Structures are given as structure tokens and as C-alpha cells.
């Protein structure tokens, strides 16, 4: 800590990060151990965060991220979209297909940025705001593959699909890897019976570019 920073705010932000990294919540004792502070400090931090709906505690006393975080999160999409656009434009022009950035929103995949190629005679219309289940379409399946690979030394690579979201359309997508707090994928969708061989590796490269821009 330096003279210009707040120790209390730093601890509060660390609490939120710890809670965001777990699906089952944390107890006061667990937070105390992870933060290296006594339980009284943790109680005060949680009480303050609860007042702002950033944390909630269940009947068992475990603390979890609160719904107030969603209000803050709505402002994240424009920032993520802006960071991703250069890589998406390059991908769309290179492949000649509609490129997109998709993020997890609850149990669904949500397209937050879409770029169409400028030089093709036709391409798939894929709009920002389009939603679909995570287990349908290349974008969602790539995200699920990354989840399954968590903790593994294997690279999740890319995912290919055909006709799952739109008849006659094929998709390729690769997950964003190594971006704290962002779960998503970069992909393309095209009118084709199958995805050309070079598209998968190119999508992986684009996902890495976007991930780097977001770090």
C-alpha cells in the first residue's frame, strides 16, 4: 500500500474478487484467512458492501456477489466492445464472414459486438444483442469447452458447428483465455456447409488479440 491508496477500499475490492472467483460463496472465516485480517474487519467490509447490494449473505452465512454488481456490469459491455473491434474488423475482412464477440450473460450467450465484412456479396446477418443457449452454436460451445478445460494444461482450441442457430450457417469460435472477470468467445458465422480449414486457427488468433486488449 502507498500513501495515495486506501487500505479499506483495497480490502473491499479484494473481497469482491474472491467472491467472484467462487460459485458457492465464502464464509467470514474463509475470507478472514484469505485476506489475512481478523473476522471483525471482514464483518465490517461485508456489512458495507451489503449496503450497496454488492454482496449478499445466504441463510447459511456464506457471502456471495450481490445483484448490485449487475448494474455496474452493464457499463462493461461498451468498454469490452470498443477494445475488441479492431481484432473483429481484421477477422471479418480476412475471412470474409461476420465476426462477433460473445459474452456469458447468466445461462445464455450474448453477442456484444458484431462486424460484417465489407467486400463480400453476401454474409450472415448477426446482430448485436442476439442471445442463444450456451450449449447451442459455436460461440457458446467454445465458452463451455473453456470451462471444461479449466485447470488443464490443454488449450481449449476452437469449436466448429453447423446449422445449430441458423439453417445453412456454419460457425467457428474460440474462447477468451486469461481475462479476469470476462467469460466469452470470439467467432465467425458464414453461409457454408463446412468451415474452411484455415478459419479455426485464425479465430484462435483473433481471440488471443481480444484477450490481450482486455488485460
TrEMBL record:
<dbReference type="Pfam" id="PF01614">
    <property type="entry name" value="IclR_C"/>
</dbReference>
<dbReference type="InterPro" id="IPR011991">
    <property type="entry name" value="ArsR-like_HTH"/>
</dbReference>
<keyword id="KW-0804">Transcription</keyword>
<feature type="domain" description="IclR-ED">
    <location>
        <begin position="68"/>
        <end position="215"/>
    </location>
</feature>
<dbReference type="GO" id="GO:0003700">
    <property type="term" value="F:DNA-binding transcription factor activity"/>
</dbReference>
<feature type="domain" description="HTH iclR-type">
    <location>
        <begin position="6"/>
        <end position="67"/>
    </location>
</feature>
<dbReference type="Pfam" id="PF09339">
    <property type="entry name" value="HTH_IclR"/>
</dbReference>
<keyword id="KW-0238">DNA-binding</keyword>
<protein>
    <submittedName>
        <fullName>HTH domain-containing protein</fullName>
    </submittedName>
</protein>
<dbReference type="GO" id="GO:0003677">
    <property type="term" value="F:DNA binding"/>
</dbReference>
<keyword id="KW-0805">Transcription regulation</keyword>
<dbReference type="InterPro" id="IPR014757">
    <property type="entry name" value="Tscrpt_reg_IclR_C"/>
</dbReference>
<dbReference type="InterPro" id="IPR050707">
    <property type="entry name" value="HTH_MetabolicPath_Reg"/>
</dbReference>
<dbReference type="InterPro" id="IPR005471">
    <property type="entry name" value="Tscrpt_reg_IclR_N"/>
</dbReference>
<dbReference type="InterPro" id="IPR036390">
    <property type="entry name" value="WH_DNA-bd_sf"/>
</dbReference>
<dbReference type="InterPro" id="IPR036388">
    <property type="entry name" value="WH-like_DNA-bd_sf"/>
</dbReference>
<dbReference type="InterPro" id="IPR029016">
    <property type="entry name" value="GAF-like_dom_sf"/>
</dbReference>
<dbReference type="GO" id="GO:0045892">
    <property type="term" value="P:negative regulation of DNA-templated transcription"/>
</dbReference>
